[in-house]
Design a protein that fits this description.
This protein has 289 residues and is of the alpha/beta class. The protein contains eleven helices and eight strands.
Length: 289
């Protein structure tokens, strides 16, 4: 009998820890809201520009050490290219034009603020897959994609319309630190606030983890992943593994009206108010380390 492989990432881990029923609807049935929240498309557009921004900065850093690798791209040209990339990318998003222009303006302001960027960029949007646990029966692989790998840290871009510190107790950030054995993760915060000064909108918060912190994360994540694997063998039980304390967190669970309905009406509600999307794949085509 071949060994079973379970691939997880921070989104899978977070949602299973939050609520088994929510996990079932999202990752087993692939139920999606009819329309994505506005914040998702704003963040998507900003990340799209930052990807090209840092790829071109990396190109310039390489050229400065080896002129045979090409020619330097001026900083103004980098900004112009990223804006054009954004304008093209907007065509595939359900994003109001004015909101899209707001994101572009925020990127331009951010780029000007960090004109003299000091990071030595090693990787941009680097995917990874690493074995977290292995037994005779199962191999659990933890996956993800980091925004930036620099000579001193992993950096993750976070856009927001509100200020405030981000918790270090994060599956995403601790998973990054473990995967790359680099225990400094910088949260590159990019605010959409119109009234704040650039130094208030663009902050970098460093999460520094000890080996003990990461070992605790490994142990906790391994236990959770094994429990998930066992639940996946009992799908009916997973579907009914509700956590009612999570229903109204943040803006409220997107599946609340399904769970609140009578069981015999839930299929009708899903067909009327939701759509079935593509399966979630943590990463594609990666070798496991």
């Amino acid at each position: 009998m071949s060994k079973q492989v379970l691939m997880i990432d921070s989104q899978i881990l977070n949602m299973y820890q939050e609520c088994g029923t929510k996990f079932y609807y999202n990752f087993i049935m692939n139920v999606r809201p009819l329309f994505k929240p506005e914040a998702f498309d704003k963040g998507d557009l900003l990340h799209h520009m930052l990807k090209f921004h840092y790829k071109m900065l990396r190109h310039n850093q390489i050229v400065k050490t080896d002129i045979n690798k090409g020619k330097l791209i001026s900083y103004n040209e980098i900004i112009q290219i990223c804006v054009k990339k954004a304008q093209s990318h907007m065509l595939g998003l359900d994003l109001d034009v004015d909101l899209g222009l707001e994101v572009i303006k925020t990127y331009e302001s951010y780029a000007r603020y960090y004109t003299n960027e000091s990071w030595q960029i090693l990787e941009v949007e680097r995917p990874f897959a690493r074995v977290l646990f292995e037994s005779d029966d199962i191999k659990i692989v933890y996956c993800g994609i980091i925004d930036l790998l620099t000579h001193v840290c992993i950096a993750d871009h976070k856009s927001s319309s509100r200020r405030g510190n981000i918790s270090a107790l994060s599956n995403q950030f601790m998973g990054y630190a473990w995967a790359f054995n680099l225990y400094n993760v910088v949260i590159n915060k990019i605010g959409f606030q119109k009234t704040l000064k650039p130094e208030e909108k663009y902050e970098r918060q460093t999460m520094s983890y000890s080996t003990a912190n990461i070992n605790e994360w490994i142990n906790n994540t391994t236990r959770t992943a094994i429990a998930l694997y066992e639940d996946l063998q009992r799908i009916q039980e997973l579907m009914n593994k509700r956590n009612f304390t999570a229903c109204d967190k943040y803006s409220g669970c997107v599946f609340q009206n399904i769970c609140a309905a009578n069981p015999d009406a839930r299929e009708f509600i899903i067909n009327k108010d939701y759509k079935i999307g593509d399966p979630w794949l943590p990463v594609k085509g990666l070798s496991v380390k």
